[in-house]
Design a protein that fits this description.
Length: 447
């Protein structure tokens, strides 16, 4: 019997150990790093950067020699014949002769080489391809920053949900203790049963709130795991110091829009538009290329063509090809004007983006200031509400306070805690926005 009892304990310990191993303590830095390695947006941005190099290779290939091999085999069932008229030297009369040109079987192999010598569109395209790679690199930074912001906000929402659960659990535990006290008073004839019933209703309501809070927390955890690209069934847990407050953050992080990735992306985009315009303007320039070919032909009466009786001949040619644009109906001018409009549109977007970023940074600073004030106020309210609750509980036990006053004190304490949790979340969200306004979101990975 004793052995069986020990086996049950051992099995329970192993189960608890397995559960502990499955539970992962997830810091914000770990969550962001995981997202940058596993989330679809991050992977796609990396593939875009890799693909940009292939685009450069494709454009660069146009500046290299183009070598092509061509071969053909032809069978001529009916060979064309021509009549040649010649004068007989002896008689002076004209003599007509029918001559057949060619053989039934003909094989041809040819090696062709072309090389661009001057092509303004090609040279400008090479520069544009290199700039495109830089654009994708900056765009990857922007994608990473957007992912960091999304993960950080989801992370703090999970932590707020956990605090909400802890608050309801604490209130439920305190109310259940009061319920036991009231039960004792009712049994002793010192309290009314209606007081016990009202307390029981309060306990049941708190249990319902606790279940709702746990459901909300589970939903928020799933949202975080989705934002990270993590398997939804993975168990996670957050450290307790997640909502650390930095009262000096406004002094440490002055807003600097020049470092914003959004601005760098638009600047690189405008540079690409300028290069695109130059590529279009290259249609005004002449182009020069070299071409050469080396061929080999074989004629035979019967197949196979390459036999001892076949007639063989080789040929080659070298040349320079010059193309000078003269007039294309002002097509190029219209295309260049369209490119200019696109550049002007990009400038308008740049101005609007700067205005939007300025507004967001000012809002973030305001939100941080207000959140710090609200947190200080709510912390004082929580402390005061706790004192009121303790005094009311003591007064109720001594018959100096009514049950209504006790329940109101419990609700006030719960409200104070929830207000504090909300203000903490508001602060952390504003803190992320302030870090973003300074262009330093990636510092969240290395803190």
């Amino acid at each position: 019997m004793k052995l069986k009892f020990l086996s049950v304990i051992a099995a329970g310990l192993l189960f608890q150990w397995g559960q502990a191993q499955a539970q992962e303590i997830l810091t914000l830095q770990q969550a962001i790093k995981f997202a940058l390695e596993n989330k679809k947006e991050a992977k796609s941005a990396k593939l875009d950067v890799a693909n940009a190099q292939y685009q450069i290779d494709e454009v660069r290939s146009g500046a290299l020699p183009q070598v092509t091999g061509v071969g053909s085999l032809t069978y001529n069932p009916l060979i064309q014949q021509n009549v040649i008229v010649m004068e007989d030297p002896a008689s002076g009369e004209s003599i007509s002769t029918v001559i057949q040109f060619g053989q039934p079987w003909q094989a041809n192999s040819n090696l062709q080489v072309t090389q661009q010598i001057f092509n303004q569109a090609l040279f400008t395209g090479l520069k544009a391809a290199s700039t495109t790679k830089e654009f994708y690199r900056i765009n990857k930074d922007l994608s990473d920053e957007q992912l960091i912001e999304k993960v950080a906000n989801a992370y703090y929402e999970v932590f707020q949900s956990q605090l909400q659960v802890e608050t309801v659990e604490s209130n439920l535990s305190n109310t259940e203790k009061n319920q036991q006290v009231i039960q004792g008073l009712v049994d002793a004839g010192l309290a009314k049963k209606i007081d016990l019933d009202r307390t029981t209703v309060q306990v049941n309501n708190l249990k319902a709130q606790l279940q709702q809070a746990r459901n909300t927390m589970e939903i928020q955890e799933n949202a975080l795991k989705f934002a990270m690209g993590m398997e939804i069934t993975t168990n996670i847990d957050l450290p307790e110091e997640t909502f650390a407050i930095d009262a000096q953050i406004l002094d440490r992080l002055p807003v600097d829009l020049s470092n914003r990735t959004e601005i760098r992306v638009l600047e690189k985009q405008m540079e690409l538009l300028e290069l695109d315009k130059k590529v279009t303007m290259a249609d005004y320039y002449p182009s020069l290329s070299f071409s050469g070919n080396l061929g080999y032909m074989s004629f035979a009466e019967n197949f196979p063509v390459f036999n001892g009786n076949a007639t063989k001949t080789a040929y080659s040619a070298l040349g320079l090809n010059l193309s000078i644009p003269i007039f294309n109906g002002n097509k190029t001018r219209a295309q260049v004007n369209q490119k200019k409009v696109e550049i002007l549109r990009a400038q308008v977007e740049m101005e609007d983006t700067k205005l939007s970023l300025n507004m967001a940074s000012e809002n973030a600073k305001t939100q941080v200031r207000n959140s710090l004030l609200t947190i200080n106020s709510n912390e004082g309210n929580v402390k005061l509400a706790k004192e009121v609750l303790d005094n009311t509980e003591n007064n109720y036990k001594n018959g100096l306070a009514t049950l209504t006053e006790l329940l109101d004190a419990e609700n006030a304490y719960a409200d104070a805690q929830n207000n504090l949790n909300t203000s903490l979340l508001d602060y952390k969200v504003a803190e992320v926005q302030l870090i973003k306004a300074n262009g330093n979101l990636k510092t969240l990975v290395n803190e």
